[in-house]
Amino acid sequence: MLELFLAELKRSWIEFTRYPVDAVAGVFIITSVFYGLFLSARYIAGPNLQFGDRLDAIVVGYVLWTLVIFVVTSIVSILQIEAQTGTLEQVMLTPYGVSRVFLARAIASLTINIVLITGILLLILLLTGRRLYFPLTLIFPLLTVLFGAYGLAFLMASLALLFKRIQQLLGLTQFALLFLLTIPSETWSGTLSIVRFLLPMTMGAGILRDLMARNLSLNFVEISLAFLNGLGYLFLGLIVFRRAEVEAKRRGILGGY
């Protein structure tokens, strides 16, 4: 598996170095969108607007949303490109298995995209004048978010494997993810706290806001539930993708587009 990851990392790095303008343009656009919304809110509310730690929480949610979009779209885009170029069947025949190949390719791509996401975060903090906390414990809720993101990515890839073109559905999913990752679910109580546990990535995002925006300590019970949620969605995505792979082979539509 390590050999596969290193090969995919080399492949992703070659693609990144050959098309750097696209990556730089993405960073500029994503940062500009957030800064434009920030300036609009300040203009509407007037000079006496006080955000408090709410803006910090929004920054964390927005950057998380950008990261999750990278993860979800990467696997779907990889699968669709393989189908368009006619190499999907070759990937299916690899000894590693198609799920491992796509997962290794997505993680390799994420390794490079983390640098871009970090650049986006630093630019937003510089433009807005805000400051976030970066405790070492933030790696745990970040992992839970990534687990859930990869699970959702494989669910979407299952649809792409069977129906080939799902761009409109993918666009709608991005808006739903913006809601899940920016809404302050950590303030929910009662029945809503149960809903929070069932929704993908919501708990991990809330814990990250507590750590980075409010400088709170890590709650062992909440992080344990967040890990259960993330791993549950990851295994669900892998199982559904495996079933979709079997169904696509049965229909003989792997090489079609």
Automatic annotation (TrEMBL):
Which segments cross the bilayer?
A: 21-45, 57-81, 102-127, 139-163, 175-199, 219-241
ABC-2 type transporter transmembrane domain mapped to chain residues: 5-211
Q: Does the keyword Transmembrane apply?
A: yes
The record's section on InterPro entries has: ABC2_TM (IPR013525), Nod_factor_ABC_transporter (IPR051784)
State what protein this is by name. Answer: ABC transporter
Q: Name one GO molecular function term.
A: ABC-type transporter activity
Locations listed in the record: Membrane
Its source organism is Chroogloeocystis siderophila 5.2 s.c.1
Which of UniProt's keywords are assigned here?
Answer: Membrane, Transmembrane, Transmembrane helix
- Membrane topology type: Multi-pass membrane protein
Q: Which Pfam families match?
A: ABC2_membrane (PF01061)
The stretch of residues making up the signal peptide is none
Provide one Gene Ontology cellular component.
membrane
